[in-house]
């Protein structure tokens, strides 16, 4: 079953996050008070709703308590604080909130935010990959369709070799290096079995990253 996410606030960060989560196969509810922003993401996400999230009754009606993660991507400090507080009172399992500064982040933590992200450091693409799969450690977008990913070896990848996995032909992913402990090996031996905890550094299409995620999710 696909993970369910709600993204409240569809500015540059929230909009990017919602689109990427949807592209990765997640069910996404996108919410904003601005009708134009809602219309812009509607064709991509599962559901898009124009609503004022600072109204507690609206959050309750949207059924956000049942979502795996709710992301508060509202720029206005007071509004993000209020929405975060309401979400935690409603019993939302995990609330991720965009913060404009370290001070903003500290206050959000005090009212119950589970994770704080700083858009200046964490672009929407990167956050989306880390939310959808714990195996993705980092992601750097090169274009709308391609990126560089660091992904932890686990489950079905342990003990297999890169030659056997054939990631290039199957998924379009080229492994550029393997991190093992404090060592980074750029001269990758395609016949050496991968170990749990190894980190693959690969470049390729987002679709390829998503398919590799699915293998890891299945274990």
Tell me what the structure shows.
It comes from Candidatus Fermentithermobacillus carboniphilus. Pfam families: TrkA_C (PF02080), TrkA_N (PF02254). The chain has about 220 residues and is α/β, with parallel strands linked by helices. The protein has helices at about 10-25, 35-40, 55-60, 75-90, 100-110, 125-130, 160-165, 165-170, 205-219, and strands at about 5-10, 25-30, 45-50, 70, 95-100, 115, 135-140, 145-150, 175-180, 185, 200-205. The chain folds into two domains: about 5-120, 3-Layer(aba) Sandwich (Rossmann fold); about 135-219, Regulator of K+ conductance, C-terminal domain (Alpha-Beta Plaits, 2-Layer Sandwich), CATH 3.30.70.1450. α1 runs parallel beside α6 (about 125-130). It is elongated, with a radius of gyration of 19 Å.
Could you give a short description of this structure?
The chain is α/β, with parallel strands linked by helices and 219 residues long. It is built from nine helices and eleven strands. Helix 1 packs parallel to helix 6.
Strand order, largest beta sheet: 3-2-1-4-5-6
Give the averaged pLDDT, no decimals. Answer: 84
Roughly how many Å apart are the termini?
15 Å
Q: Based on CA inertia axes, which overall geometry fits?
A: elongated
| Topology, number of strands | 11
What quaternary form is this?
single chain
Question: Helix and strand string, N-terminal first?
Answer: EHEHEHEHEHEHEEHHEEEH
- Fourth-tier CATH superfamily name of the largest domain: NAD(P)-binding Rossmann-like Domain
* CATH fold descriptor of the largest domain: Rossmann fold
Low-confidence stretches: none
Radius of gyration: 19 Å
The level 1 CATH classification of the largest domain is: Alpha Beta
Percent in helix: 25-40%
Please name the CATH architecture of the largest domain. 3-Layer(aba) Sandwich
**Number of continuous helical runs:** 9
For the sheet with most strands, the description reads: 6 strands, parallel
Strand content: 25-35%
Structural class, by secondary structure, is alpha/beta
The number of domains: 2
GO molecular function, one term: monoatomic cation transmembrane transporter activity
Domain RCK C-terminal: 134-218
Protein name: TrkA family potassium uptake protein
Organism: Candidatus Fermentithermobacillus carboniphilus
